[in-house]
Specification:
With about 190 residues, the protein is mainly α. The chain has two domains: about 10-45; about 65-180, no CATH class. It is about 50% helix and about 5% strand. The protein has four helices and two strands; from the N terminus they run H-H-H-H-E-E. It has helices at about 10-45, 80-100, 115-130, 145-160; strands at about 170-175, 180. Strands 1-2 form a two-stranded antiparallel ribbon. The longest helix has about 35 residues, at about 10-45. Keywords: Membrane, Transmembrane, Transmembrane helix.
């Protein structure tokens, strides 16, 4: 009787099957992560923040540096459209910088006691107007719409600097799935 050694471990086909299954699982995982990342990037760049139109305020004087006060540019012109676009971009950058350097609470009545959601609602509303510029290029054809956006931005800033309710409703779903909601009401919080 000859003794044949017993094979140890798994047969070759089983090892190949395990390796192929692992490679398939890894490929699926990486593909899924890339798809989720691409979707998140797309949603972040195409975020639509619903902002209710602002009613005109009887006490809203024209600001000296507002596009509305420019007498040299005829309304409805491409130049006026560009001025309105630039004004919205500058306003967005101004308050973006104020958030970055921490000076934004010094711009609103109540300072550090102002509800952070009020400030966030203001910034989200400005961001919505700024984002709209991607779809409405500065041209004579778009001058009327850009004038409306610029007037909304001016009125939002006026209300923000006066500590008034913004008259907006903001609902944002963040990248992590959490939801930010604000009614745009001015309020202070106690520390």
């Amino acid at each position: 009787m000859t003794d044949q050694p017993q094979p140890r471990g798994l047969p070759g086909w089983a090892i190949a099957l395990i390796i192929a299954g692992g490679a398939l699982a890894l490929t699926t995982l990486i593909g899924g992560l890339l798809a989720i990342s691409a979707l998140g990037t797309f949603l972040a760049s195409a975020r639509d923040v619903p902002v209710a139109p602002l009613p005109p305020s009887a006490e809203a004087p024209a600001l000296p540096d507002s596009p509305e006060s420019s007498d040299s540019t005829p309304p409805g012109s491409a130049a006026q459209a560009q001025e309105d676009t630039d004004a919205i971009i500058e306003l967005h950058e101004k308050y973006g910088d104020a958030i970055a350097d921490g000076s934004i609470t010094g711009m609103v009545p109540g300072g550090d006691a102002v509800d952070p959601d009020y400030i966030a609602a203001y910034l989200y509303s400005l961001t919505d107007l700024r984002s709209a510029l991607r779809f409405v290029p500065a041209s004579a054809e778009n001058a009327a719409q850009l004038r409306v956006y610029a007037e909304q931005a001016e009125e939002l800033e006026r209300r923000f600097l006066a500590g008034e309710d913004l008259d907006v409703r903001v609902r944002i779903t963040r990248d992590d799935g959490s939801v930010f909601e604000s009614d745009g009401k001015y309020r202070t919080v106690t520390p």
